Amino acid sequence: MPSFDLRTAPLRELNRALHALRPDTNETRWLIGNPDGRHAVAVGLDAAVSVEIDGHVGYYCAGMNKRASVVVNGNAGVGVAENMISGFVHVRGDASQAAGATAHGGMLLIDGNAGARCGISMKGVDILVKGSIGHMSAFMAQAGTLTVLGDAGEALGDSLYEARLYVRGAVASLGADCVEKAMRDEHRAQVFAKLEAAGLAGEVDPGEFRRYGSARSLYHFHVDNAGAY
Amino acid sequence: MAEHPPAPRTAPRLSATFTPDVMAEIRRAAATGIYDIRGAGAKRALPHLDDLLFLGASISRYPLEGYRERCGTEVVLGARFASKPIRLKTPVTIAGMSFGSLSANAKEALGRGATLAGTSTTTGDGGMTPEERRHSRTLVYQYLPSRYGMNPDDLRRADAIEVVVGQGAKPGGGGMLLGQKITERVAGMRCLPPGIDQRSACRHPDWTGPDDLAIKIEELREITDWEKPIYVKVGASRPYYDTALAAKSGADVVVLDGMQGGTAATQDVFIEHVGIPTLAAIRPAVQALQDLGLHRKVQLVVSGGIRSGADVAKVLALGADAVAIGTAALIALGDNDPRWQAEYEALGTTAGAYDDWHEGRDPAGITTQDPVLSARLDPELAGRRLANYLAVMTLEAQTIARACGKSHLHNLEPEDLVALTIEAAAMAQVPLAGTGWIPGKGLL
Ligand SMILES: Cc1cc2nc3c(=O)[nH]c(=O)nc-3n(C[C@H](O)[C@H](O)[C@H](O)COP(=O)(O)O)c2cc1C
Questions:
Q1: Mutate which of B120, B165, B167 to test ligand 1's pocket (most atoms within 8 Å of Cβ)?
Q2: Per the structure, how many domains does chain A have?
C-alpha cells in the first residue's frame, strides 16, 4: 500500500502520483500522513482508488474528485470536495465553509459540523452532514440533496433552484425563495437512501426530517419580485 | 399701414441633459418598471485609444523597411509557472464568450478563425463545447463564479485556465442569461431546468480575497500538474491593485477588461456607469507589474473596445503583452451586418445598433440559440472572415511598429506615443501632442 508523508514528500509529487494511476492499477489504497493543514491535498483524482488522510487538511481537499474515495481523519478547510464529479469524500471531523461547493455528483459525508455556505451552488452532489450547518447553506443550489441531521443556520437555500434540502433539526431562517415542502413517501425513501449510503440505515428515522425546496418564484425575472433579489 | 412681421419666437430647443435618448429611456422605464438589459459594451463616447497617435521615426530614430525587415508578432503567455505556456503567432486573442450567449456555430467559427490565425480562443460562462475544443488549437477555459459546466476533464483538455473575477462591462456584477436562450442543451450543460433565467453569481462560491485566490490557483495547478498557464481576468476599476493582487496570488497572466468591453447581457446602467475606460486602465496595471518586478514575466492581456491594428499597437506600446477581442470578433463573423437590415428594423432597431443579444433573436445567427437563425452562420466561412480580420490587425500593428523602428511589436513603448487630448495624455501618461506635457507629471 503506497503511503506518503507530507512532512517529507512534496504535495506536488503526491498529486502527480495519484493522477498517474491507470484504471487497472493495483495501488488502490493510499495512506497520507501529516497533512498538517496543507491545501489541495488529493485534488483532481480520476481513479477508483481509496485515499485515507490522517490528520487535518486545508482548503479544497479532494477538489474536483472523480471516482475516488477520500477519507479525512480530521477536519477539512474551505471547499472540501469542491466541484466533485463522482466518488465519495468522508470528513471524520468538521468541515469549514463552502463544503461541497458546486459539486456535480458523488457523495460528501461530514461526521461533524459544516460551516457557512455548505453546498453552495451544488449541481447534483449528495451531501450528508451528521452535525449542523452554517448560514447561507445551499445558496443557489441547483441540484442534488443536502441532508442535515442537526440544525441549519440563517438563510438556508437562498435563491435555490432544484436541489432538495432535508433538515432534521431547527432551521434558523429560510433564504429568498426557499420554502418548506411536504415530506411524501418518495422523499422519505430518498432520505433513507442517503442515510443508508452514509451507513446510518436504521439508526436515524427518515420521518424526522423536514424538506425544503424552491418556491420557483424567482425563476423568471419579474419586477414585483425586485425586493427579493 | 405696414404690417408687423410676426414676432420672432424662440426656436424649439432640445435639452443637452434630457436628450431624446434619455427621455425615451424614462418613458420605457415608466411603462415597464424594469431596467434596460442589453448586450455589447459602453456606447457613450469615452477617452479611448483614438486619442493617441504614434510618432513615426525620422532623423532621431530610424524606421524598418516595410516588406523586408522582420517585425515579430509572436507572444508567449504563462511561462512564469506553467510548464506548458501558450505560444501564439499574433498578440490578438479571442476573449471568452459563453456558449449560451452565442450559438454553437458562432463558438465553432471563433475557434476556426483563431486557429487559422495562430491565436487562442476562450470558452465562457456555461462550459466548453466539444465543437469549440475540436476547432480550437489553443483554447483557454474560463473558471467562473457560476462554475456552470465546470469539470476536471475539460480542465485537463484546456490549454490554459482563466479565473474570471470580473468583466469590464460590469466589474462587480454577475451574469444573467434569460430564459428565452436556455435550450435543453444550454440548460443541460449548466445543470438547470430549460427555459428559466440563469443568474451567474458575482462572487466565487469558495474563495474571497487575494489570500484565498492564491490557494485556489494552487489547487488548479495541482489538479493540472502545473502544466497550464493560469490567467486571472478582472474588470477595470482599480487596475493597479487588482493587477498587483492577481500577480501576487500567483497568476501567470492578468487579463484586464476595460469598460468598453462587451457583455452578453447586463443592465445598461451597469455597462455605462461602472468601471473605467480601457485607456485609463493600462498604465496603472503595467505600473503594478513593474513595481513588483514582474512586467513581461506576468503577461498583461488588455481588452475592451479593441478594433484595429492601431489599437493593438497602442495597447502594446503602453506595456501590455497581448489584447483580446470580443465585439470586434463578432462583427467579423457577421454581427450587425447591414445585409439583415430589414430584420433589424422588424426588431425595432437598425444594423449597427442591435444589442438585444439576450433576447436570442439575432438575425445574423450569432447571439442566439434558435436553430433556424443559427443555421444562417456558416462556421467555416465566418471563421475565415475572422482569420482575415485577425491577419489585417496583425499587419496593421506591424506597419506601425516598423514605422517606429521596432523589430517586434513588444518593442513598442510609451515614448512612441502622444495624446490628442489632455484627458488621454493624463490617462495614458504620454505627452500632449506637440508639447512635453504629461498632466500630473509636470514638464518633461
Ligand atoms: C456575447 C458576449 C459574451 C461574453 N461572455 C463572457 C463570458 O462568458 N465570460 C467573460 O469573462 N466575459 C465574457 N464576455 C466579455 C469578453 O470576454 C470580453 O471581456 C469583452 O468582449 C472585450 O471587449 P470587446 O467586446 O470590446 O472586445 C462576453 C462578451 C460578449 C460580447
A1: B167
A2: 1
